Amino acid sequence: MPDHTHLLLGLKPNIAPSDxxxxxxxxxxxxxxxxxxxxxxxSWQEGFGAFSVSxxxxxxxANYIHNQPKHHRRKSFQQECLEFLERHHVPxxxxxxxxxxx
Length: 102
Prior knowledge:
Blueprint: H1 17-35, H2 58-66, H3 68-74, H4 77-87
């Protein structure tokens, strides 16, 4: 997707999600900029969302990620994210919600 990325990762309990995401963002930013894959300096938007999933639902999540293009023809990532947070009663601040790339 041009405006967001999903990762399905197994995480050891001694690794903080924020540390792992920071490493991924730093490494990928450096790689993209070194390879000059885009016509300007690349950087990630500030922040991230992380959600746990039970082992019994890994297949469903992988399928969801695989079908992103089809999924977002019906509903934007922003709409879907807000609905997900509200459906699962996750408190959030409006200023932390993903902003569309313009």
